[in-house]
Predict the structure.
Amino acid sequence: MKVTYQGETGAYSEMAVYKFFGNKAEPVPCKDFHDVFESVKTGAVLNGVIPIENSIEGSVNQNYDLFLNYDLKVCGEVAVKLAHVLIANPQTIFEDIKTIHSHPQALGQCRNYLEKHTWALHPEYDTAGSVKMIKEKQLSNAAAIASEKAADLYNMKIVARDIADNPSNYTRFLVLSHNDADPTGDDKTSIIFSAKHAPGTLYNVLGEFASRNINLTRIESRPTKTTPWQYNFYIDFEGHKTEKRCIETMQALEKYAVFIKIIGSYSRVI
């Protein structure tokens, strides 16, 4: 089963692919998140895996925005614990390190450690890709932040371990498909909506969930990018979209929303 993800071999996203699909998966790396969505849309692969939020750095905003542009569903979620290590070429001495390369989220997750040094920080498109880059360029005064697996894959040296600000560092990933998952009895639904510009609209929206005893697990706002200071809201809530209470809630929300898009219903892991 081919499953696409953003990054290089050894990336945390690849770990998420294996954790959700098991050893039957054939991970297919992509350069950016847009390519992940596009490959699922065109049918080049059946599924894609994307990060959506980190327990330290928060949301991956680009992926929230991409859901507006693609008519794809979320059919699952998976959480991966991130154990960041500092990786360098085998000949590199710690004292010679001048630059650090990694994905911006990983740099942010290791902020406290990095601020203890005078290194120059270089954001890259991927954690494992950063390791691959300093190996291919044979940079002797550079290091990358990535997983221990990435160090092993590229035969590189780990020069420091456990460098994240918080040892409980998790990233939540969503699984993309053309179809919803079947109800399991312990499900979650994700939606996007834009509220009408009127007093109390968001209050009323939240009240529709509360009145039916539906628990919200996440709410996020993002600029519409079409009208200044207007926002789309992203909500995760417990329940499958086929449940009676969820159907009634979606119908009630039509009074307060300019549009509503159900991204998907899937088995609840987090």
